[in-house]
């Protein structure tokens, strides 16, 4: 019994815990500013409906209204630079705004400075990502990244140099 208990204790040390923070939805933010009714009046409500001939099924095209966006804290570099990132289950790409990004949307976020990290390595490769909500263009690099208690050395990630306001 003690051996099993010791084994379970050892396994529990392998668990990576990442605290998530629920951000306000767009709906909550504009409701607080008492702009929700105006916003809903201005937005088109074009839901397309497709039904099969026997009327057993119908599908509706829906748009995401940002009802649930979860952010977590990670660090990149040595010494660590802290970022709040979206743990997006629809994408496997990690990227953060770079100090070289001059897009208006970059100015709203903390930017990674490769010059301040002794472990950063440029990869001399460009990256471009397109999402339903916008896009980003930048370069790839590698550095030490910490997510919760998990430390990843030489992790490849993107440094945004240009991004649209929707990402």
UniProtKB/TrEMBL annotation:
Segments forming domain Peptidase A1: 70-167
Keyword Signal: yes
Primary localization: secreted
Entry GO MF terms: aspartic-type endopeptidase activity
Disulfide bond sites: 101-106
GO cellular component, one term: extracellular region
Gene3D superfamilies tied to this protein: 6.10.140.60, Acid Proteases
Subcellular compartments: Secreted, Extracellular space
InterPro entries: Aspartic_peptidase_A1 (IPR001461), Aspartic_peptidase_AS (IPR001969), Aspartic_peptidase_N (IPR012848), PEPTIDASE_A1 (IPR033121), Peptidase_aspartic_dom_sf (IPR021109)
Alphabetic keyword roster: Disulfide bond, Secreted, Signal
Family: Belongs to the peptidase A1 family.
Name recorded for this polypeptide: Similar to pregnancy-associated glycoprotein 8
């Amino acid at each position: 019994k003690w051996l099993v208990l010791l084994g379970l204790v050892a396994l529990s040390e392998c668990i990576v815990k990442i605290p998530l923070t629920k951000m306000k939805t767009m709906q909550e933010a504009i409701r607080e500013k008492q702009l929700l009714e105006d916003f809903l009046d201005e937005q088109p409500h074009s839901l397309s409906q497709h039904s099969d001939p026997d009327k057993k099924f119908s599908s509706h095209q829906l748009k995401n209204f940002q009802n649930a966006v979860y952010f977590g804290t990670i660090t990149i570099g040595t010494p660590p630079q802290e970022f709040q990132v979206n743990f997006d289950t629809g994408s496997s790409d990690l990227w953060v705004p770079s100090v070289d990004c001059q897009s208006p949307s970059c100015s709203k976020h903390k930017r990674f400075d490769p010059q301040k990290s002794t472990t950063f390595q440029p990869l001399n490769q460009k990256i471009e990502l397109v999402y339903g909500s916008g896009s980003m263009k930048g370069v790839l690099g590698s550095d030490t990244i910490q997510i919760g208690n998990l430390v990843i050395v030489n992790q490849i990630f993107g440094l945004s140099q240009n991004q649209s306001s929707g990402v």
